[in-house]
Specification:
Its main location: membrane. By secondary structure, the protein is of the alpha+beta class. 35% of the residues lie in helices and 14% in strands. The strands form four sheets. It has a five-stranded antiparallel sheet. A four-stranded antiparallel sheet has the order 7-8-9-10, with no helix packed on it. A two-stranded antiparallel ribbon has the order 1-2. Helix 2 packs antiparallel against helix 3. The radius of gyration is 34 Å and the shape is elongated.
Amino acid sequence: MSHGSHPLARHEGDSHHDVVPDHFENPGHPPHVLRWADVDPAAARRAERQVAGFFLLSIIGTLAFIVAYFWMDQDAVGTVPGIGAQNLYHLVLGVTMALSLLGIGLGVVHWSKTLMDDHEVTEERHVLASDAETRRGFGDTIAEGLESSQIMRRPLIKYTLGGALGLFALPLGIQLVGSMGPLPRNDLEETFWDKGMRLVTDPDGIPIKAADVSKGSVFHVLPEGINEAEHPLDEKAKASVLLMRLNPDDIQSDKQREWGYEGIVAYSKICTHVGCPVALYEQQTHHLLCPCHQSTFDVTQDCKVIFGPAKRPLPQLKISVDEEGYLTADQGFTEPVGPSYWEREL
Ligand code: FES
C-alpha cells in the first residue's frame, strides 16, 4: 500500500521535525531494575516487617473500633484542637475504622511494591469469547450439575433453597437500617425550644433584648439553658435559630408579623433541603441563602423558597418579650425543622 499521498507523509522541503513515520517499532520493555528487597535479604526482611506492621495497625484499629462501638458513651462530647466541640463517639469510630482500612491498604500496596514478583509479563491480545465447543461444554457441565443435584426434580428443595438464599441478606439489612438511629419524624419534630425560654446568642449564651436588635442585623440564637456539656450536639443543631429585624411594613404575611415582635422575626437555621445551616443574610434584599446548594429564602414572605432545591419555607419560631424586655419563645416550633422527608405529610 502506498503512503505517498498521505497528508502526514514526508514531502520535499519538510523539516525533519514534521516527519511522522508510517509505523512505530515496538520499543519493548525498559530493562528490568531490581529492587533492594530483590538483592538484599536484610532489605527483604525489613520490608516484611513493615508490611506486618501495617497489618498490625489495621488489627489494632479494628479492635479499637469494636471496643468503642460497644463500650463508649455515645453522647460523649470533647474539644478537638483545630475542629472544636465534637461528638467523640463518632470521631473515635471514624478514626478507628480509617486505621483499620488504611492499615490493610498500605500493607498490601507496600507488599506488592517491595516483595511480590515484579517481572513484566506480556500477553498478546486474543479473541475474548470462548470457541463454540468450549461454550457448549460449559452448558453441558451446568446441565449435568443440575441433573446430578436433582434440584429440578425436587421443587421442595428448589423453592426452600431460593427462600433461604433470598432471605439470607435480610439480617444484614435489618442491622444496617436498625443502626441508622431514630426515624426523622421522631427526631426532627421535637426541639429544645419551649414556651417562655429566652433567646440567647450562640455561642456566648447572652440573653437578647428586643431593643438590642437593630434593623439589618442578624443574630445566631439558641434557647437559654442548652449547653454542650449536658445536651448532645444534634439537640443544639436542631434548636439553632436566626433572628432578624425588618421594617414591619416590609413584612408581607400577617402570621409572620403576629409571630414576631415589632419586626423582629426568628426562623429555624436548618435548611429545609438537606439540613445545612442557612447562614448568609442579605440585608438589602432580606434574603437568606443556604451555602450548600444555594436555596434562597425571602424573609419578608415568611421565609418562602424563592430559589434552589429546598421545597418548604423555614419554620418560624413564635416570639415575644418578657417583663424585662428580653426576647422569649412563645412556644416551641409547631412543625418539624430541617429537611423534608417522606412522612412529613402523614
Ligand atoms: S442544604 Fe440548603 S440548599 Fe441544600
